């Protein structure tokens, strides 16, 4: 082959890859709407990172610890707090029942998210942004600016604090989306604050829910009340070859707590437990709650954020809604001083949101890489 012909072939291949790359950045939903019989190579994971989907997946299903909010707020609070502490230490996840959020609010949120992803691409694409801190962002994969292999997921991220500032920038279509998210975000924020108080108590930072240390814990609670909240609607379209890709790669959540509303009909969430990937068995009318990196830092490693990932389904699309909560964006995340002593020194660097945003913008997200970058000492049990 002549040099000129080689150059022509290379140029044509590069142009094809640029066209493909542009298509991938439009999202999985757009690709699937055009019709797909195979997974494009941009989404195919290395063999060692692909999910092993067993026919007998019942053997790899996991029933998470169940925390009953009604019991936590009743006379059985002390026992329930012990169960909460054990779940955060041993699993990093739990399922929350009797949470008190109206089923109407939950259904309206799911339906509004589903309708958004069903909008024409031209409407959805109005909210595409490469700005990690944008108050509204429609996108695909995990970090599409850095991911070498894309994951099988589109998302809509909505910043929720303060609502009065961000609401005008939210999508105006579908018509019911704004009100559905406002109602849902307020209810999940209230639920989150109830859980924060319980976690502070379980860590020994407050004596009882009604007898709070004025000097330290009140400051903590005030910060949480003014804290950040991000609603993330995830869309995982059905996939022709689900054993080649993932809806989301192994990762931990950056915040304090995540309240996840899973798809009750289509399983997909997996957590790493005792060295194995296990599929979470969802309980109807419950939330899946998980420890984030900020809570691991705040608890000085006592409560651990845990790696999790998402499988995709060959027959059905899947929708989930995550509400991610933490301290305000201008806060410094550090181990609670009450949890540090000579026998248990601080294990993490002070961390702010700016560092996280900068890290995410400049790195391909891998497992718990950001949290590991903040670690001061190596833990023998890590």
TrEMBL record:
Domain Fe2OG dioxygenase span(s) in chain numbering: 226-327
InterPro entries: DIOX_N, IPNS-like_FE2OG_OXY, IPNS-like_sf, Oxoglu/Fe-dep_dioxygenase_dom, Plant_2OG-oxidoreductases
Swiss-Prot/TrEMBL keywords: Cytoplasm, Iron, Metal-binding, Nucleus, Oxidoreductase, Vitamin C
Keyword Cytoplasm listed: yes
Subcellular location: Cytoplasm; Nucleus
Pfam assignment, any one: DIOX_N
Gene Ontology molecular function terms on file: L-ascorbic acid binding; metal ion binding; oxidoreductase activity
Principal subcellular localization: cytoplasm
GO cellular component term, pick one: nucleus
Protein family membership: Belongs to the iron/ascorbate-dependent oxidoreductase family.
Its job: Involved in the regulation of shoot development and salicylic acid (SA) homeostasis.
Name of the protein in question: Fe2OG dioxygenase domain-containing protein
Organism for this UniProt entry: Salix dunnii
């Amino acid at each position: 082959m002549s040099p000129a012909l080689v150059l022509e072939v290379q140029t044509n291949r590069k142009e094809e890859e640029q066209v493909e790359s542009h298509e991938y950045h439009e999202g999985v939903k757009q690709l699937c709407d055009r019709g797909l019989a195979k997974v494009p190579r941009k989404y195919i994971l290395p063999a060692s990172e692909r999910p092993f989907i067993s026919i007998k997946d019942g053997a790899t299903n996991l029933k998470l610890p169940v925390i009953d909010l009604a019991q936590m707020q009743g006379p059985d609070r002390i026992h329930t707090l012990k169960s909460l502490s054990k779940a955060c230490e041993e699993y990093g996840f739990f399922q929350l029942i009797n949470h008190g959020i109206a089923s109407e609010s939950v259904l309206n949120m799911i339906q509004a998210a589903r309708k958004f992803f069903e909008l024409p691409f031209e409407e959805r694409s109005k909210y595409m942004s490469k700005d990690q801190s944008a108050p509204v962002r429609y996108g695909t994969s995990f970090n599409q600016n850095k991911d070498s292999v894309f994951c099988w997921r589109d998302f809509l991220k909505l910043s929720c604090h303060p609502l009065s500032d961000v609401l005008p920038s939210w999508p105006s279509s579908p018509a019911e989306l704004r009100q559905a998210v406002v109602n849902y975000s307020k209810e999940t924020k209230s639920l989150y604050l109830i859980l924060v108080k319980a976690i502070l108590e379980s860590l020994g930072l407050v004596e009882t829910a009604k007898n709070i240390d004025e000097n330290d814990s009140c400051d903590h609670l005030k910060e949480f009340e003014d804290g950040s909240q991000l609603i993330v609607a995830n869309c995982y379209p059905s996939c022709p070859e689900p054993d080649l890709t993932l809806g989301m790669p192994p990762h931990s959540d950056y915040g304090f707590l995540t309240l996840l509303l899973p798809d009750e009909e289509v399983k997909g969430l997996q957590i790493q437990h005792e060295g194995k990937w296990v599929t979470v068995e969802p309980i109807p009318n419950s939330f899946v709650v998980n420890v984030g990196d900020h809570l691991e830092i705040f608890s000085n490693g006592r409560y651990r954020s845990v790696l999790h990932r998402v499988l995709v389904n060959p027959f059905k699309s899947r929708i989930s809604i995550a509400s991610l909560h933490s301290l305000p964006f201008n806060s410094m995340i550090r181990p609670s001083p009450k949890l540090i002593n000579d026998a248990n020194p601080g294990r993490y660097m002070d961390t702010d949101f700016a560092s996280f945003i900068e890290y995410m913008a400049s790195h391909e997200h891998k497992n718990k890489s950001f949290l590991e970058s903040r670690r001061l000492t190596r833990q023998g049990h890590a």
